[in-house]
Amino acid sequence: MASSDVKPKSVSLAKKWSEEIENLYRFQQAGYRDETEYKQVKQVSMVDRWPETGYVKKLQRRDNTFYYYNKQRECDDKEVHKVKIYAY
Known about the structure:
By secondary structure, the protein is an alpha+beta fold.
């Protein structure tokens, strides 16, 4: 297995909102597990982020359309339990 083809060892569901969960929610909305998979697939070294909050600002989906995100929190409390946290 190549080092650029990293697979997760385990997965769990989020219980409580945090900044990490917010960013995972944004990656998963765009069709990726997390930042690691996004960087692998899109061959990018950096992700566009809001300087004020550090949240993901823009992601390119696999079909090459873009998702644009707000500066504020977008992952509602009712969505938190759907976010998957991958361990490598």
